[in-house]
Amino acid sequence: MGRSHLSAREPVSRVRALQAAVDLADEEGVDAVSMRRLAARLGVVPMALYKHVVNKDDLLGGMVDTVIGEYAAPGVGADWKAAVRDRVLSARKAVARHPWARSVIESRSTRTAAVLGHLDAVSGAFLGGGLSPDLTHHAMHALGHRVWGFSPEAFDDSADPGALRLPADPDEQQQLVDRMRSTYPHITAIALDSGGACDADFEFEWALDLLLDAVGRLHEAGWVSPRRR
């Protein structure tokens, strides 16, 4: 039995149940998480879990809360921009440790105390830096999913079997590139310049910094949204 499996002699609590569910999702994917599988992992009958977890939806929400609990607070004395950046990148590291978390976070319709606490902390970093509630409101909208450490893309090439794959033969490669260049010259130029691959972490941080710099400029200019004028 692995380290993450709990002994039947250990009392089951909500914290233990949620951590066991997170461990199971990390090992086998979130689709493997069920009340029956979790009960077996904890060494109890499924009905015993309902004292701690109401249902599958409550379980998934609690798993998200457990991941949020891993987010690190910014360093002492960090200015508002560094504080927001640190919180967002800490969330990104947590999502990287738990790849299943992204889809579960996106599926949540209920805001738990942990979810609200994270949103409050990020908003508080803006407000603590002197930004107005008005500008902070719009900045949070602009952050969107980035506040949870990921940014939805229009296409996920890594999971797309139809994504462009260069053939092994050099002559065939050149023929394909020539066809692409004649039909889609602009995206082909970008793809060739980037080597055909993107650094997801760099792109995420670049966009985050771009956004925060823009918010900073608006703050310095005393920007007010049209509805407040």
Automatic annotation (TrEMBL):
Q: Which UniProt keywords apply?
A: DNA-binding, Transcription, Transcription regulation
By its UniProt entry, which SUPFAM superfamilies does this protein fall under?
Homeodomain-like, Tetracyclin repressor-like, C-terminal domain
Q: Which InterPro entries match?
A: Homeodomain-like_sf, HTH-type_TetR-like_transc_reg, HTH_TetR, Repressor_TetR_C, Tet_transcr_reg_TetR-rel_C_sf
Answer yes or no on keyword DNA-binding.
yes
Q: Which residues bind DNA?
A: 34-53
Q: Sorted alphabetically, which Pfam families does this protein's record hold?
A: TetR_C_1 (PF02909), TetR_N (PF00440)
Q: What is this protein called?
A: TetR family transcriptional regulator
